[in-house]
Amino acid sequence: MSLARQYNQNQHSLEKVDNEIYKIIIEEEQRQHTKLEMIASENFASRAILEATGSVLTNKYAEGYPGKRYYGGCEVVDKAEVLAIERAKALFNAEYANVQPHSGSSANFSVFLAFLNPGDTLLGMDLAHGGHLTHGSQVSVSGKYFNALSYGVSSDTFLIDYDQVRDMARKHRPKMIIAGTSSYPRVIDFERFAQIAEEVSALLLVDMAHISGLVAAGCHPSPIAYAHVVTTTTHKTLRGPRGGLILVGKNRENPLGIKNAKGNIRTMGPMLNSSVMPGVQGGPLMHVVAAKAVAFKECMSDAFVQYQKDTVANSVALAASLIERGCTILTGGTDNHLLLVDVRNFKITGKEAEEWLDTANISANKNGIPFDTQSPLITSGIRLGLPAITSRGMTVNDMNTIADFIVRVFTSEGKQDILHKVANEVQSFSSNYPIRR
C-alpha cells in the first residue's frame, strides 16, 4: 500500500480531523453535480489533477527555479517543474514557459514588472466591453500604477474595433498593448494586433486565459507567433488546476531594448523569471505545478481536442437555440466557448437573471454588455459558458433543453413556483451526466 493511501486511511483523514470542512466539501461536490455549471471561467478538473493538487508536494518550499533553488532538497520537485515547462512549451509551440504564477493576474503583473515602469502607457480592452480587470481597469493595480487607456468594440457590430486600436496606438504610443478578453464571443485577430504594435514599437501581450484550451486544440488561432509574451490561466478551457502560465514564442527579441546592469540587451526569459520570483511572488506551489504538468499532458490527447470541438459546437448550438426563443445574443452568435445574452428584452436585469437562474439550479454570472447603462453590480447581460457542461458529456442534442430551461427562467417574473419547477427538472436532467473524474 502506498504512503499516500495509508495516510488517507488512517486517523488523519479530513473527515476525522475537521468534520465541518469535510461536510462543506461534500456539500460543494453535491452542488456541482446537481447544477448546470455555466460560468465560462469554470470547469471540472480530472481525478488525476485533483490527486496531484492534494499531494505531498504541497510540503516542499522551492523558491527559485530548477537547479537554482534557494533551499535544499528540491531535486525531486525540480523534476515536476521541468516536466511542466517542457509540456507547456510543446503544447503551445513556445520557446519559453514559466509555470510558477499562482494565477492569471499574477502572470500579467509579472509581465508588467518585467517591461513597464510606473506611469508608462498601456492600451488594453475596456472592462465594460469584455476586457479584464488586469488590462488597465482603474480599480486594479494595472490602472492605478500605469497610464491605462482602453479600446472597445464597435457599437454597430459589438466586434473589436481594430481601427480604434490602431488610432489610439498611433496617438498615445503605448509601451504595451494588451489583447485578450474575458467576455468576447468571437475570434481575435492576433496578427492585426501584432501589426499595430509593431507600427508603434509597443510590446504586445496576449492574455488568452479564456481561450487557451481552444488554442491548444487548434479551435482558435494561436497568438504565440504574434505576441511578444502570452499569459493564460491553467483552469478554464485548459481544464487544469487553478493557476497561471507565461509563454514566449520562438525567436522573440526584447522589443523594448531593455538592458541589464552591464548594458547588454536582456533576453525575455530571464527578465520574466526574475519578475515572477522574487518580483511578484515567493515560493511556487509545487503541488499545483505538478498538477499543471498533468493538465498539459491531458491536453495533448485526441480526447481533449475532441472535447474542445464539442465545446464550440455546444456554444454555437446553444446560441442558435436561444435566438429561436427570442433571446438577443451579442454579435449574433459565438465562435468560442461562451456567449453573451442581452436580457433587456425580457425586462429584467443581469442581476435578476443570475439570481433566478441560480434558484433554478443553473450557475451563470451577470455580465455588463458594451455600452451598458446599468452599473457593474446590476448589468444588462448574462455570460454563459459551455466548458463545464461539455466536460460532463452534454452534446448539441441537449442545447434545446438547456435553452428552454434558461428562457423559462427569464420569463418567470421571478415566481418561486416556476423557478423551483425548473430547478427540479434541471436536477433530473443533470443526473444523466455525472461529473467524470
Fold and architecture overview:
This protein has 437 residues and is α/β, with parallel strands linked by helices. It is built from 17 helices and 15 strands. Strands 4-10-9-8-7-5-6 form a 7-stranded mixed β-sheet, with helices on both faces. It has a 4-stranded antiparallel β-sheet with strand order 11-12-15-14. β2 and β3 form a beta hairpin. The radius of gyration is 22 Å and the shape is globular. The mean pLDDT is 93.
Using brief descriptors, characterize the structure shown:
alpha/beta; 437 residues; four-stranded antiparallel β-sheet
Main sheet record: 7 strands, mixed
- Give Rg in angstroms: 22 Å
For the largest sheet, list the strands in their spatial order: 4-10-9-8-7-5-6
Fraction of residues in helix: 40-55%
**How would you state the average pLDDT, rounded?**
93
Indicate the proportion of strand residues. Answer: 5-15%
Secondary structure topology:
Blueprint: H1 3-9, H2 14-17, H3 19-34, E1 36-37, H4 47-53, E2 64-65, E3 68-69, H5 75-92, E4 96-98, H6 104-115, E5 121-125, H7 141-144, E6 147-151, H8 162-172, E7 176-179, H9 190-199, E8 203-207, H10 212-216, E9 229-233, E10 244-248, H11 268-280, H12 286-299, H13 302-324, E11 328-329, E12 338-342, H14 350-359, E13 362-363, E14 365-367, E15 381-385, H15 387-391, H16 399-410, H17 416-430
Parallel strand pairs: 1-13, 5-6, 5-7, 7-8, 8-9
Antiparallel strand pairs: 2-3, 4-10, 9-10, 11-12, 12-15, 14-15
Helix pairs in contact: 4-12, 5-12, 6-11, 8-9, 13-16, 16-17
